[in-house]
Task: inverse folding
């Protein structure tokens, strides 16, 4: 039987999948993507994600407040998040992080608001002993500064695009790095070079569906069934077998998120 894959970052709960979510998940299972980590982005979406996770055994929810949706967040949502995590099964806290790429988020006041939200979520994750799923754009040094203040914290920086030095600093902190569609583009020379040099036991595979499709599916809605193209690209770049990439990254995901798929699991 082919090795099983884990999509460590997929937004199967979002609107682009509303019309065919079951079919998308069936295609994922047929492609041996047996476990899918789905991080929430806003508080008003947590209940929707919970219903999806309750319905589909391959979907593992994480709950958090995404930095790109600051206008949707309220101060009380941090208390709501604590209460939610007390009562719901979550494999991680996320998606949280810092995003200074958007012009409107580059003022000092906007950065301060993001930082407060991020730091508070890291504290909650530490309290509940949950890994974090981190979104970071133009903010990795500050992300590193924050997680260093919580030495027991573990997690993943998804869609990693930083430097080799930043990568090793994160790994030294016990973090994994998520890689997806961007590494399949030949123009991404720095990223492709990086993914060949990092230890395989620090990597996770992800699609970030419906966004960031691989080069073979450019311009299309991304989906978890295509995760194998990420694994194959890493295998080709590192000159190792596809099975080695999948086996190691799947074990990495199992270890971080404390999931372990039964051999016969399939969605109905």
Result:
């Amino acid at each position: 039987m082919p090795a099983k894959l884990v999509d460590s970052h997929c937004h199967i709960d979002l609107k682009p999948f509303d019309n065919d979510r079951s079919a998308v998940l069936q295609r994922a299972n047929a492609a041996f993507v047996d476990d899918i980590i789905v991080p929430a982005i806003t508080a008003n979406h947590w209940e929707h994600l919970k219903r999806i996770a309750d319905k589909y055994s391959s979907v593992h929810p994480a709950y958090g407040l995404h930095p790109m949706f600051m206008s949707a967040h309220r101060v009380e949502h941090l208390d709501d998040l604590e209460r939610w995590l007390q009562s719901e099964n979550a494999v991680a806290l996320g998606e949280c992080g810092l995003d200074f790429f958007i012009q409107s988020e580059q003022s000092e006041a906007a950065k301060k608001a993001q930082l407060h939200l991020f730091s508070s979520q890291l504290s909650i994750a530490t309290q509940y002993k949950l890994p974090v799923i981190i979104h970071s754009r133009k903010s990795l040094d500050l992300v590193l500064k924050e997680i260093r203040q919580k030495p027991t914290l573990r997690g993943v920086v998804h869609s990693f695009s930083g430097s080799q030095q930043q990568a090793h600093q994160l790994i030294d902190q016990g973090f994994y790095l998520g890689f997806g569609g961007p590494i399949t583009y030949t123009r991404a020379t720095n990223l492709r070079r990086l993914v060949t040099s990092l230890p395989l036991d620090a990597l996770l595979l992800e699609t970030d569906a419906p966004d960031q499709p691989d080069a073979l599916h450019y311009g299309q809605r991304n989906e978890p069934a295509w995760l194998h193209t990420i694994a194959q690209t890493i295998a080709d770049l590192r000159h190792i077998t596809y099975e080695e990439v999948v086996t190691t990254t799947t074990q990495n995901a199992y270890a971080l998120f404390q999931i372990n798929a039964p051999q016969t699991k399939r969605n109905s």
